[in-house]
Amino acid sequence: VPEGVDTQLFRPIEDRQRLAAWRTAIFGEDVPFILFVGKPTKRHNLPSLIRAFGLLKQEQKIPHKLLLIGMSLPGTSFEHAIAEMGIDREVFTIGHTSHDDIVLAYNAADLLIYPSSYEGFGMPILEAMACGKPAISIDNTAFPEFSKGIAHLLPDVEVNTLKTGMLAVLNDPAWQSEMAKAGPIRAAQYDWRLVT
Hints:
Elements: H1 16-27, E1 33-37, H2 46-60, E2 65-69, H3 79-85, E3 91-94, H4 99-108, E4 111-113, H5 123-130, E5 135-138, H6 143-147, E6 152-154, H7 159-170, H8 173-188
Parallel strand pairs: 1-2, 1-4, 2-3, 4-5, 5-6
């Protein structure tokens, strides 16, 4: 029996004013952002993600912030990567929040990236898909089983791979639209309430 997602909770939100207000509450202004949801454990490769994001800010001048949710959970330090890249004003963290707030985060983000070296399943990818958001992960463990053909699956967690993967999605509105349409359909197949 696979993991399941509550598609009545994790679903697309079309209210743009509500999402803009959420972004403003988090960042102090309505700006686009890239999202990570999960524990700050070593296997989630947050230092590599932060460095990749920093390079996108430096090289591509993207307007996005980076939001990390779940940072009060046990894990490893990533602050050194923020300092190294000089992006302390570009990276925001939330220690812990409710599922209702996480739904808003998925919907308000431009994309979710979950660069995990290994997972038993990888719920944030499925939740983001259910919300109709572009999602990026790694082509390993369970991710190909439930997200292949929809999420952008990268071959490894190297900084340049993560940078290139994020840029590819951000620069392709048609691909984003395809993910937005296909994600909720695939996620609905993993709704436990449909199992009889």
